[in-house]
Amino acid sequence: MTLLIVTRLIALVSTGLIAGIFLGHRAGVSRASTRLHPGSFIQLQQIIHQTFERMMPPLVLAAVLGTITWTVLLRAQRPLIGFWLLVPASLGLLIAAGLTRAINIPINRQLMTWSSEAPPAGFPQIWGRWERVHSARTLLAVGAFLCQAVALGVVTPGAP
Known about the structure:
Layout: H1 3-33, H2 38-52, H3 56-74, H4 81-111, H5 123-155
Helix pairs in contact: 1-3, 1-5, 3-4, 4-5
């Protein structure tokens, strides 16, 4: 397999998985968890965090590096529209990763210190910030995946 094919596969699969995980959480868990008792909410979020804590960093890294590499590899190819579709995909993933690192991860670390028996005062406001940033990174990841899918069709029309 050529470098372009492998890079494209890594970028598409990892970005699609991230977009799906983010969207699934936003559409399901985020909506349902607001109806939970504060202790149950904290317990649920801690379990979710433990599940995704190990999986997400390599997945995000693969998406960012795969998409940037794909973008660079397409720079010299025609038509350039594929390249120009991948530029916002790369930027969107970089911004989503930066937001995650700057806001979501510190709040996740804070979450892991909370007691479900005695939720800290003001936790809804802290978690509200997590949710706002999560909504933004969900839009960025889904947008990046859509740009990748269109770029794939433009660059390789008629390919299986």
